Predict the 3D structure of the following.
Amino acid sequence: GQNIDQPTEMTATEGAIVQINCTYQTSGFNGLFWYQQHAGEAPTFLSYNVLDGLEEKGRFSSFLSRSKGYSYLLLKELQMKDSASYLCAVMDSNYQLIWGAGTKLIIKP
Amino acid sequence: GAVVSQHPSWVICKSGTSVKIECRSLDFQATTMFWYRQFPKQSLMLMATSNEGSKATYEQGVEKDKFLINHASLTLSTLTVTSAHPEDSSFYICSARGTGTGDSYEQYFGPGTRLTVT
């Protein structure tokens, strides 16, 4: 079956760095997405990785290792507004998104 | 660019009535639209995928006669919840993917519709 695993909840301190991991097992792979979702709102796109390596975009970076079925989202210089759920999603061979359950990130002052 | 709107943002309806939710791509042609449902503190659950001009493909466990999806144009898809019951109360989110939005197959999400059935 298809499976996406990510931690349920993480806590970090304002100004610090946090890494949210995602492991996956899917039928085929056409890329991995990270989305941010604030409570009561729709997800917003953060990053897309289809090749191995690190993609950096401002304070956020995303890493992919296809051989290991592994990705992480790295958030630097954490701000209170970064408190949200972070969703990992993999696009399978049918170009359907398979969603993880999301990681709730709590930022403390 | 790549903006998706949903209407209404929230709706309260009585049990047994039907509710229609609209999803529009405002600045691109949405060849494929997705409808998701999200219960509190849970992840997104894909309900169905619709391609413009063809019947929607429903996920296992989703009743196609209860959740009617129409994707009649490249900019509009509708989801009608028929004979709504309190257990249908949820956050319904549409997303769209289409031409002119890049090569990443990114899905652009609407803001969601919160449905409460009393």
Summary: The radius of gyration of chain A is 13 Å. The mean pLDDT of chain A is 94. Chain A touches chain B through 21 residues (CB under 8 Å).
